[in-house]
Amino acid sequence: MLQVNNLSTEDLYETIPSPPDEIPLWATNEGKAWHRLSEFEILARAEEITGLSLELMFEALPSGVWGIHLVKGKRGRIYINSILPLIWRRFALFHEAYHLLNHKKGARFWTHTFESMESFENRADSFAWAALWPEWSEGDYSDWA
Q1: Residue 63: band (very low, low, confident or very high) from pLDDT cuts 50, 70, 90
Q2: CATH assignment of the domain containing 9
Q3: What is the H or E stretch that residue 6 is in?
């Protein structure tokens, strides 16, 4: 789950992550296949990989939450906070998609392993940056609405 501290518009911009100095090679390699995909294409690709039937929802989420995903049986839903600007909605979508693709046992399982939750979230952030990088670096996200 990707979180921010406060969802007022002013404070939101203070919590926006800065781009990384370097994107790990593993993330760059995995992110390439996701470059410039539409939301529909992102969900279709994630469905193909996970075998889940996925739905994307934009909702007003609790303070501090950018996105969350839920899975029950063969169905999944990704919620993205509707207050986020378009580029950060996309970032949150890639972040949550990474969890669906790679952390199938969920956060509850990962909190009881030797891998830290920070690592769990940092990997999802790295993937999101890698998938988003071409649009971010070119400022090419005005037509995502």
Answers
A1: confident
A2: 1.10.10
A3: none
